[in-house]
């Protein structure tokens, strides 16, 4: 068994967190990750509702017992009702990422819930550290969805040298080799998302799962074009890594007016709709149950690390 800060403090069996992917990680996915020994997180995106959080939390709780909730901190600055909705479900962990969590950490702690923050730079980590979070997640630019630009391993090493807080890693980790690598470097475990995207428990169109299986590691692009097309008000510093398609080939890196992007975008069309996924997409070769993915990653990592125990 791989024992780390994550397993000891979150009462889980393996040091794996299921990423809170907005629009993809609902109660079924989170529950299956937790059932397999990790901790699955609900992706409470800006457009989620308190009712959605309650309903999906109930599903996750029935399937896996424990679960977490991931929130986008910058969106709470306009409306923090989703934080109240998350706290009300008594999750094992709340992540407050993409922005300064200082205004919200005390409320989560008052409910007896630990807080993690995904960070993309050393300065982000220092802000989260000052805010009093319990866990840092070093999210590298290989990650799917919204992320930063620094690679996972350089960022992880920098943060491990700069803080006494426990640090987990995210971005580009899709097999036991990746989990073993970051644990060997000093991380307490990993947050995985792309490795789960083809699993039948994910929310979203079937074509998204098919695109993940067929894509290679070079078939992603870091872009804000989907945010512009869908009027998603993400701060400029965070782009999103997605599988390339006709929409990105036509519009990424251009000055196309938003009105034209909105007109061209079609979420139902595989050639135009967004499929956020990281560079670990090249490691996903089939649509496998999420629980099987988690168990194999953990078992393979333990086997690899045992060679040096």
From TrEMBL:
Single GO molecular function: nitronate monooxygenase activity
InterPro entries for the chain: Aldolase_TIM (IPR013785), NMO (IPR004136)
Annotated keywords: Flavoprotein, FMN, Monooxygenase, Oxidoreductase
Highest taxon in the source lineage: Bacteria
A Pfam family it matches: NMO
Protein name: Nitronate monooxygenase
Biological source species: Rhodococcus spelaei
SUPFAM superfamilies: Inosine monophosphate dehydrogenase (IMPDH)
